[in-house]
Amino acid sequence: MSSKKSVAEIIIEVLSQAGVKHCYGIVGDTLNQITSAIKKSDIEWVHVRHEEVGAFAAGAEAYLTDQITACAGSCGPGSLHFINGIYEAQRNKVPLVLLASQLVTSQQGTDFPQEVDFESIYKNCSVFCQQISDPTQARRITTAAVQAAINQRGVAVIVIPYNISLVKVEDNSGQKIFHPKPVIRPSDEELAQISEILNKNSKVAIFAGHGVSEAHDELVALAKKLKSPIVHTSRAKDFVEYDNPYNVGMTGMFGMESGATAIKECDVLLMFGVDFAWSQFYPDDATIIQVDIDATHLGHRHSVDIGVVGASKPTLAALLPLVNEKADSAFLDKCRELHTKAIDKLGKKAIPSKTVIHPQYLTELIDKYANDDAVLCADVGSAMVWACRHFSTNGKRRTVISLKHGTMANAMPQALGVQKAFPNRQVITLSGDGGISMLLGDLLTTIQENLPIKVVVLNNSSLNFVELEQKSEGLVDHYTDLKNPDFAKVAEAMGLFAIRVDNSDLLEAAVQSFLAHPGPALLDVKTNEYELVMPPEIHTSQVMGMALYSVKASLSGKMKDVVNLLVDNFVKK
């Protein structure tokens, strides 16, 4: 028997059937029918203070749960505010639906106040973007949007004019949502070709990306047979680093000498699920074999000799029996030794200091006292480097960082979504002072939604990573200074538990107290403003750039800054 339902009710019913648990957003005018339907459903509305935060939060929930989530906004500026968080979700390839409510159809195309052409804006950062113009198509379009988000791994945008959302129509199509999970691996011929190359070369390095998320054990088993060092991207840290005697760390700007050497000196580089963008960190002469679930990634960043399509787990399982176990571990041993030295070097500043608080020390204290299954969300900038280098994983911990989109202000909003999805897990942010101040108002969401996230602010009174970029180019840093408030007092005024620390001797006790607090909390830490992020290799151009900066800064009256920078990063050891 058929029955009439409003378009808004049909949309929310489809999302609920697809598994959506939360919808993040801000209510208002053209969205009222949608939020009314949500209220009557089993989907929980999460009231944020800025739509960009809602998209970040929803995207982070989808990223960690691998389940579809939603966000929704009103017409014009409301739904337009989601754009940055939607780009983040799309680049992370997570399933998310944006319900962008729209002016009534009679007002569209007339330059009416708040009119925004959402389809032209969002089509470039989504896998599906369509307006429901005919009420009878509500279930078909919503189902197609959800299927696209789930199976094409990305954002689906549904534009809903207000007058369409309230129309009641017959709804008896019986359309369903499907979550197929195909097993995809290279052909037998391709696997044989790959194994032949691996078997006849002794210096094989494995480069693992986010695509190995479900293949930790198989990856380690292959490295054991090949006596191969495993280098990983920053996005693969959670899945590669733990319980892995073959791990030699990262390459790239955040990496270390061992990871860079393993890739530079190998004869064969075997890549699994890697779309690492910086071509200068690939080997010059090695045979490169790339395995990726997405055929468009093959040879995308650097030319490869063999490119095959396959998910990492079934591909590794099929490849393992074809690979001969090697006896020569000289290459692996060299990279392991370099890795041990690199870890020791990174730890030299992860200690208390009588004069400043090193961010490395702060991060390692967070690492020491965080729960075994804690989630760390880190802002873009120096915070993401300290998180990647000094927060250890164990197979249960996770890190969430804007590594593909590279946006500021991501950490605290993403922590909100993670905490909503996992109410019983400890969720911590490593927030830059620039990042936290951009979307500071949504600290109120921790109170409104009772989300006990733990916000750590790296308060160095600057856009620190931008300063590094300017100095390495030989420029005197301009417009990077921040006149910050006492973030602890701001947080207290909002209702959070807060502590401010500017003394290294007091930091450990403060971290313990902060993490132990049962509700939302903020730890404002005055960190060393002269801290440099040191890459695994320092090139001549960077040395010359820093030297040129020193001269220019001295002539500009910043001699004290130059001395502090040089002493703290190059003299103290």
Radius of gyration from the alpha-carbon trace, in angstroms: 25 Å
Shape: globular
Number of strands: 20
Secondary structure: helix percent:
40-55%
Which strands sit side by side, in order, in the main sheet? 3-2-4-5-7-6
* First-last Cα distance: 77 Å
The chain-level structural class is alpha/beta
Quaternary state of this entry equals single chain
Number of helices: 24
Roughly what is the average pLDDT, rounded to an integer?
A: 90
Return residue spans where pLDDT drops below 50 for at least 5 consecutive residues.
Answer: 538-560
Biggest sheet architecture:
6 strands, parallel
Indicate the proportion of strand residues.
15-25%
List keywords for this structure.
about 575 residues, alpha/beta, six-stranded parallel beta sheet, 24 helices, globular
Account of the 3D structure:
The chain is of the alpha/beta class and 573 residues long. Helices cover 41% and strands 17% of the residues. It has a 6-stranded parallel beta sheet, with helices on both faces. A 6-stranded parallel beta sheet has the order 11-10-9-12-13-14, with helices on both faces. A 6-stranded parallel beta sheet has the order 16-15-17-18-20-19, sandwiched between helices. The chain starts with a strand and ends with a helix.
